[in-house]
């Protein structure tokens, strides 16, 4: 059984490729294969050739309508191309997600802006667009943004600071979110299209990040940046709606990146394990290693099916299902991180050596669990939606549409009696929802053509069993007091006895900075 699943991995990849826009897919793969992404990582900038390659293939307008110069691809095909790109380089795929899924749809949805056609044409040909939401005081909960947009009749004045904005300094356009004020404010938030060269808009910092080194991340300072009112993208509605729908699409994009990176890591590790000998056997013949590969391949199968289900729901409903998009992003990013870690381990010293691609995948995978909503934020939100009477029906409907109403009922039953406002309970409820949705997707049968769907469903059942073994007990006040006392004692000891330079000036600067 195990070796059957292992051998299916290669076949499954071929099958998927055959279903994609085949010419575009294979010529993109050929072109990406020519580029040296390890050097780009060291240089902390992707090569100009990558930009022209992506532009030549039309990848800066993946789902954009043809009238704007886009490829108008169905979401599933766009997702496949993003996964394929991520299997070469997560930074390159991130460029596609920021531009295509986060920024561009906000511009496309605003036909009223001056020369929208021209802006869209330029963007689909490669004028990069960045998405500026995060601020020092507003990250995992962006509703606390402080950047202000003072709305005059004919212009908007923006002030504030945005951090970790991917592509910002290379971008032609910045889609910026700010808190609206002044006599012409229509909602609480606005979404404004800002020219990167606008007077008063300064790039003040380039962040040195653990991974995702092929693209730039900047701090942006908006110092009374004046933009004509016509460039307010969210003219008639609250800009929060634009941000939320972009982030939902972005989560599906991040899940696609996780899938591509995870596939490449398994491929590299499997090739090593097939050749490396452990004693008399090849590594792949060791039963422990074989089972590890089985589980990695099954995780990939689940993520692929979840993405397929998300895309199908979007075609049916016209917009991403926020709950399924969050669950898919959580599973893909968490499992990509887990698989990347296991593959580094399987390669031993070579896994830690930057000359093999898994070290870079390991570093790159780490961001997937943080941006577009950290795992805990999304789980907590899913858990709250499951438990709250106001939103419970939305989750129930989603399970129902996947033919899994009993899974939902069982989760509600299991959670009854727990404190619905406790942080640990919410995360637990979020995991129950996420794994429950994965179980429903795999059981539905239609989202996975794979012969290993049943084994993948078993994997989810065992993940659920492990989760339940760690179910939060009814919160005990004494336990929390004790936990806090243990930490405080440690910090007091550390302040006087730990001599390593943990609290360097740089570290303190970062804490103050945030
Ligand atoms: C490389 C990189 C690129 C980025 N690109 C962009 C971009 O292009 N545009 C943009 O706008 N932003 C971008 N970001 C910002 C990113 O989206 C934020 O870092 C992210 O939303 C988290 O915000 P924060 O860092 O302020 O974390 P915080 O809000 O300080 O959260 C810290 C941690 O708290 C935990 N946490 C949060 N909520 C809960 C909860 N309910 N329960 C328990 N624990 C919880 C999570 O573990 C979380 O990681 C980027 C960030 C990085 C590092």
TrEMBL record:
Domain Acyl-CoA dehydrogenase/oxidase C-terminal, chain residue ranges per copy: 238-385
CDD domains reported for this sequence: ACAD
InterPro entries: Acyl-CoA_Oxase/DH_mid-dom (IPR006091), Acyl-CoA_Oxase/DH_mid-dom_sf (IPR046373), AcylCo_DH-like_C (IPR036250), AcylCo_DH/oxidase_C (IPR009075), AcylCoA_DH/ox_N (IPR013786), AcylCoA_DH/ox_N_sf (IPR037069), AcylCoA_DH/oxidase_NM_dom_sf (IPR009100)
Source domain of life: Bacteria
Cofactor(s) of this protein: FAD
Any one GO molecular-function label of the UniProt entry: flavin adenine dinucleotide binding
Keyword Membrane: no
Ranges of residues in domain Acyl-CoA dehydrogenase/oxidase N-terminal: 37-109
Keywords: FAD, Flavoprotein, Oxidoreductase
Domain Acyl-CoA oxidase/dehydrogenase middle residue range list: 130-225
UniProt family annotation: Belongs to the acyl-CoA dehydrogenase family.
Protein name, per record: Acyl-CoA/acyl-ACP dehydrogenase
Organism of provenance: Bradyrhizobium archetypum
């Amino acid at each position: 059984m195990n070796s059957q699943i292992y051998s299916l991995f290669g076949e499954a990849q071929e099958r998927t490729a055959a279903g994609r826009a085949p010419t575009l897919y294979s010529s993109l793969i050929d072109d990406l294969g020519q580029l040296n992404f390890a050097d780009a990582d060291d240089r902390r900038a992707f090569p100009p050739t990558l930009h022209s390659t992506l532009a030549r293939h039309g990848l800066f307008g993946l789902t954009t309508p043809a009238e704007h110069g886009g490829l108008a691809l169905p979401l599933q095909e766009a997702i496949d191309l993003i996964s394929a790109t991520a299997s070469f380089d997560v930074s390159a795929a991130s460029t596609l997600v920021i531009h295509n899924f986060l920024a561009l749809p906000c511009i496309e949805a605003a036909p009223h802006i001056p020369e929208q056609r021209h802006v869209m044409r330029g963007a689909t040909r490669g004028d990069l667009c960045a998405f500026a939401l995060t601020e020092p005081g507003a990250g995992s909960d962006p509703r606390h943004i402080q950047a202000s947009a003072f709305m005059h009749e004919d212009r908007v004045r923006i002030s504030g600071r945005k951090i970790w904005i991917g592509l910002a300094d290379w971008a032609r356009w910045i889609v910026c979110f700010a808190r609206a004020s002044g006599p012409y404010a229509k909602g609480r938030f606005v979404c404004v299209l800002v020219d990167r060269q606008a007077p008063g808009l300064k790039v003040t910092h380039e962040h040195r990040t653990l991974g995702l080194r092929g693209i730039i991340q900047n701090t942006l300072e908006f110092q009374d940046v004046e933009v004509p009112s016509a460039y307010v993208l969210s003219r008639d509605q609250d800009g929060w709606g634009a941000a939320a729908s972009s982030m939902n699409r972005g989560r599906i994009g991040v899940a696609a990146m996780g899938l591509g990176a995870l596939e490449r890591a398994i491929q590299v590790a499997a090739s090593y394990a097939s050749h490396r000998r452990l004693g008399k056997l090849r590594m792949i013949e060791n039963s422990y290693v074989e089972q590890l590969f089985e589980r990695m391949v099954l995780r990939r199968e689940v993520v692929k099916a979840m993405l397929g289900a998300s895309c199908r729901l979007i075609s049916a409903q016209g917009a991403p299902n926020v709950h399924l998009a969050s669950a898919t992003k959580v599973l893909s990013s968490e499992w990509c991180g887990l698989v990347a870690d296991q593959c580094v381990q399987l390669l031993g010293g070579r896994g830690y050596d930057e000359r093999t691609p898994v070290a870079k995948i390991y570093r790159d995978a780490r961001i997937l669990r943080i941006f577009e909503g950290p795992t805990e934020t999304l789980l907590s939100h899913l858990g709250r939606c499951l438990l709250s009477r106001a939103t419970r029906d939305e989750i129930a409907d989603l399970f129902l549409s996947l033919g899994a109403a009993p899974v939902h009922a069982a989760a509600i039953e299991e959670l009854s009696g727990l404190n619905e406002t406790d942080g640990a309970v919410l995360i637990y409820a979020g995991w129950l929802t996420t794994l429950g949705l994965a179980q429903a997707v795999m059981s539905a049968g239609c989202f996975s053509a794979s012969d290993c769907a049943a084994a993948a469903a078993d994997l989810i059942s065992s993940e659920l069993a492990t989760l339940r073994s760690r179910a939060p007990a009814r919160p005990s006040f004494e336990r929390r007091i004790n936990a806090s006392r243990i930490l405080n004692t440690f910090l007091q000891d550390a302040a006087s006895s730990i001599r390593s330079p943990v609290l360097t000036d740089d570290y303190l600067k970062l804490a103050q900075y945030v």
